[in-house]
Amino acid sequence: MADLDNLSADMDAANLYTEEIVTDRKMGTIHVLTPITPEGAKDPTRAPIFTGEVQIMTQMGPLPISFDIPAASVAEAVSKYGEAAKEGVRQTLERLQEMRREAASKIVTPGSPGFGVPPSSGKIQMP
């Protein structure tokens, strides 16, 4: 079990946001993160953050992909959604290909995890 005494679960009061979801109910969603003060008022000194979400179908089922949308308003985020989604999917596919290459190039030796044969004590065992 994890050592809960060393777990830091404190929120950063200087970095608070409220979240709204905008959707066209066809393609995907945009999360609008509006900065707020610790008292809950809008913080005009910080810009909102826009993130998009889309799902692609894989052999294992739907894969959700999140991506940032560089924008200053909801209207701008909506207009940039398509290009940001394409870039998010492209980056995700590149990461998946890199993970496949790393897994394929991993050298597996006897006794190492993934070899498929349990380590032996060196003794021949008879049934």
Number of strand elements: 4
Tell me the helix content.
Answer: 25-40%
- Please give the alpha-carbon distance between the first and last residues: 38 Å
Strand % is 25-35%
H and E order: EEEEH
General shape:
flat
Spatially, the strands of the biggest sheet line up as 1-2-3-4
Structural class assignment: alpha+beta
Q: Would you mind describing this structure in some detail?
A:
This protein has 127 residues and is an alpha+beta fold. Helices cover 25% and strands 27% of the residues. The protein has one helix spanning 74-105; strands at residues 16-23, 29-36, 49-58, 61-68. A 4-stranded antiparallel beta sheet has the order 1-2-3-4. A hairpin with a 2-residue loop joins strand 3 and strand 4 (61-68). 9% of the residues are buried. The model has no long low-confidence stretch (mean pLDDT 86).
Main features:
127 residues; 1 helix; alpha+beta; 4-stranded antiparallel β-sheet
Task: Please outline the helices and strands.
Elements: E1 16-23, E2 29-36, E3 49-58, E4 61-68, H1 74-105
Antiparallel strand pairs: 1-2, 2-3, 3-4
In short:
The chain is 25% helix and 27% strand. It has one helix at residues 74-105, and strands spanning 16-23, 29-36, 49-58, 61-68.
